[in-house]
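Re: weekly structure request thread

Next one in the queue (346 aa):
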Amino acid sequence: MSIEQSDHSTELTEHPATFPNPGLPPHRPRLGDEDPKAAKRSERLVLLLFTVSVLASIAAIVGYFAIPVDPETGSVGNTRLSTLIIGLGLGLGMLGIGTAAIHWAKSLMNDHDKVEERHEIAGDAETRSTAIEMFNDGAKDTDIARRPLIKGALGGALALAPLPFLVPLIGNLGGDWDISRFKRTAWAPAANGDRIYLATDPTNRRIKASDVTIGSLFHVMPWNLPEHPNYLDEKAKAVVLLVRVDPQDLKETEERASWSYDGIVAYSKICTHVGCPVALYERETHHLLCPCHQSTFDVTDEAKVVFGPAGRALPQLPIDVDENGYLVAQRDFDEPVGPSFWERER
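Done, posted below.
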């Protein structure tokens, strides 16, 4: 059985070069456009949101002064509570301004669609004049002159919102501008000549060279540092990473040949990029890794930078052992630890 297929000619339809502009959809009035009470409710809500912003900013400032963080005592509880209150105040202050501005624009300002024809970008006088006129029209559209409460709340919120950030920043600057503090750490020899032992962080246990096996990593601080009156400040500068590698793998210059002991090397834990803790160790490659921005340092080559944004090697702590086999610091770092600052000599 055969099926005959008829050949139908298809008539192609030509499309027009342009389409007529359908125009904008009809404007749908909001509830506040037709009901003055609804508009008043929207106004009160905007006022409430600005007020929340003002109160949150004030609470953050009060919390900063009411819960002082004493660096000498190093109260972790006060630090956490103060940070929490300042953070919540700053966040709610900014959130209140943002949500109030959005609700103000969507419920009280003109919501008619605007059309601006595309044209070549040009900064002639007419364009600038039109832009200024549009800006002025927008300012008039806010109708802020007829809403003094919102005007006052907006001004107060904008004035107070940055303070939870600025007040702690300025307050923590303090009166101590002794930059030489950054150039010395708790590893500096004691005035009475006592040795500074290497101890585990945070258990404060002295470390013997025999405790450090090849491939192991120790987080280290000066022995008995927790007894220091400025414990947290001093620890922030003095933390060290202790690693043992095969002595044959070390690429030491003649100057630093005596800074290690039988393959054990000690480097500052503070990244030279922005000061994050260098806490990760790749045993196979002998690389120390900073998790913040992935700066990588080669333990076998004087902790020089092999990858990442850090600009210089980790400072090395010269170490030795005493007559009982405990690891001790020969002296302080030969250069400032952490990221570079404006008074650095190296």
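DSSP finds seven helices and ten strands in the chain. The longest strand covers residues 217-222.
Next request, please.
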